[in-house]
Specification:
seven-stranded mixed sheet, about 250 residues, alpha/beta, about 15% strand, about 40% helix
């Protein structure tokens, strides 16, 4: 996989492929613990957005739809190289919207669509607007990051670290602020939504709003914790993803 967009942290197995999309300000390495916890026969691929880590010198996207388009363009030849391998998309927070838009783009092309979408920490775009983020300055972005948790608070007080992290965070929040639902047909792929029961960004009820965006089966999985519940329960999340992936693969 000769692309700057994707990272693997395990040896790919021969089973289904799972493509993971990071949260706002996040990088591919956020999913390294999950990749290590997933079933060995899966092929776990983590998306690396521009503007962070080894892609720091590249300008980050400030438009979420364009970001999804770039991911879809890079992912399509990867999928085409192994047309018989089923795949699923998993995204957390902003990553759930990027995964959803990527799935919509892939569904319009010649390749088979994903077997399942796993969407975490975010309500559906027609019911859970992100437009308010367009007004966020750096102070507001950092306040939101503090509110959501998931980041070592001491890092937020380190000006050197923040100087490195802010460009990607700033761009991601602008991308969220520019994004809006423009309508479209529901996806054929089943959808599983994951959410923390104490998430300050999305309620369990809001998580259920994704149901109208699929013609397949739909489920909501609720876990104890806040917005970044998944990083505290890696094994439990891995079990849900593995079961969903392997069940869909066996049923196909």
């Amino acid at each position: 996989m000769n692309s700057t967009w994707f990272r693997r942290y395990t040896t790919p197995g021969n089973g289904p492929r799972l493509v993971c999309f990071p949260h706002a300000g996040g990088s591919a390495t956020a999913y390294r613990p999950l990749a290590l916890a997933l079933a060995a026969d899966l092929d776990t691929v983590c998306v690396q957005y521009p503007g962070r880590q080894d892609r720091y010198s590249e300008a980050p996207f400030t438009d979420l739809t364009r970001l999804a388009g770039a991911v879809a363009e890079e992912l399509a030849p990867v999928l085409a190289a192994e047309p018989g391998r089923p795949y699923a998309l998993f995204g957390h927070s902003m990553g759930s919207l990027v995964a959803f838009e990527t799935a919509r783009l892939l569904a319009r092309g010649p390749l088979p669509g994903p077997r399942r979408l796993f969407l975490s920490g975010r309500g559906a775009p027609d019911a859970h607007s992100t437009a308010g983020f367009a007004r966020y300055d750096d102070k507001a972005v950092l306040a939101e990051v503090r509110r959501l948790g998931g980041t070592d608070q001491s890092m937020l007080d380190d000006p050197d670290i923040m100087e490195m992290a802010l460009p990607a965070l700033r761009a991601d929040y602008r991308a969220l602020g520019s994004y809006g639902w423009r309508g479209g047909e529901p996806l054929a792929a089943p959808v599983t939504v994951l959410v923390g029961d104490g998430d300050p960004m999305v309620t369990v009820e809001q998580a259920g709003t994704w149901a109208t965006h699929t013609r397949g089966d739909f489920a909501v999985k609720v876990f104890p914790g806040g917005h970044f519940y998944l990083f505290d329960q890696v094994d439990e999340i891995a079990a849900v993803l593995t079961e969903g992936l392997l069940t869909e693969s066996a049923a196909a």
